[in-house]
Amino acid sequence: MRTFLSCDWGTSTFRLRLVRSSDLHILAETTHAGGIADTYQRWAASGRTAERFTFYATILQKRIKQLAGEYGQSLAGIPVVLSGMASSSIGMKELPYQPLPIHTDGRDMFVERLQVEGTMNPTIIISGITTGDDVMRGEETKILGCSSLLAETSGEQLVLLPGTHAKHAVIRQGKIIRFNTHMTGEFFKLLSEHSVLATSVEKGGDFDAPANRVYFRKGVETGSTFGLLHSAFHVRTNQLLKDVPKTANFYYLSGLLIGYELRDIPLHMPVYLVSGAGHQALYQVAMEQLRVPLAATMDADSALIAGQYMMLSRDNW
Fold first, then answer.
1. What is the mean pLDDT of the chain?
2. Reduced to 3 states, what is the DSSP secondary structure of residue 27?
3. Which of 136, 163, 189, 264 has the most CB atoms around it within 10 Å of its CB?
4. Whole-angstrom Cα distance, residue 253 to residue 184?
């Protein structure tokens, strides 16, 4: 297996990458706006004349052919790995969540080969995991992919995955033993775009600008110390009473929410940050402000691809 196709079919976006197996180098990739939520709505609007699985499979094959055309080489027969929302109740095929604990080498993850007649590429789909009162789909694959970073220790380590619904996963002796979800990104969007605070913030300022960094750090410190519902109104009074620039206020609000998210991380627990570049800069500064120990960082897309390849290898393609 020289190459494989990594599919990240998220709620709002579809990403497909052709990956070289030997070093996980991306040879070609394509991104589309047709995420799982949009695809499900299109299927429902079609009158559900086609089976849901078949509807999604047809779209997947169309995207593979498009990528093949852009790459200039046939991708027929190359295995595809899907993780994340593709296995959800609105995804290509719903799979049950696997309960904790989960080994970080993927040995007890729930994976299913998708049986399809015709010309569909060989496909496996990875399910999510659950604590019993919390769930994740997609992030678990990134945790598997970053497991090589983790120190060999009997103590607990934290893998932090920022996002719309940030995940904090605790690893001990090669197993995910617990995790929790923080709606940091979603609350930020709601407050910055759909609340009374929306007129007090403005997106687009450079995080490296001194004023933006100063107010971000202030937000982190305040969010980690005081109640969020009261502190959030400071975004409004910053503008009304202190003439804080709206771009700086934007980062103050971001700092408030991230500081609140991080405030309960034990200072003795090493943290592994798995994120994109934008989140990495914010969380690194926030962790520095709160003296949270940062053990290592990894790009979230690289972790996803590594985790998908781990599961593909375990499935003996």
1. 94
2. strand
3. 136
4. 11
What is d(CA 141, CA 35) in angstroms, rounded to the nearest whole number?
Answer: 18
- Classify 204 as helix, strand or coil: coil
Exposure class string for 225-264: b at 16+ Cβ within 10 A, else e: eeebeebbebbbebbeeeebbbbbbbbbbbbbbbbbbbee
Q: What are 129's strand-pairing partners? A: 98, 136
Q: Is 129 exposed, middle or buried (0-12, 13-18, 19+ CB in 10 A)?
A: buried
- What pLDDT does residue 1 have? 81
Question: What pLDDT is attached to residue 316?
Answer: 65
Phi, psi dihedral angles at 149 (to 5 degrees): -75, -25
pTM of the model: 0.94
Rounded Cα distance, 240 and 242, in Å: 6
In angstroms, the Cα distances linking 151 to 141, 144, 301 are 19, 14, 21
Residue 74 has pLDDT above 80, yes or no: yes
The set of residues, in sequence order, having a beta carbon less than 8 Å from that of 107 and lying 6+ positions away, is: 314
The whole-angstrom separation of Cα 58 and Cα 79 is 16
Q: 178-205: per-residue pLDDT in tens?
A: 999 999 999 999 999 999 999 999 999 9
Q: Are 290 and 168 in contact (CB under 8 A)?
A: no
Task: Kindly tell me if the per-residue pLDDT of 119 is higher than 80.
Answer: no
The distance from CA 236 to its chain's CA centroid, rounded to whole angstroms, is 30
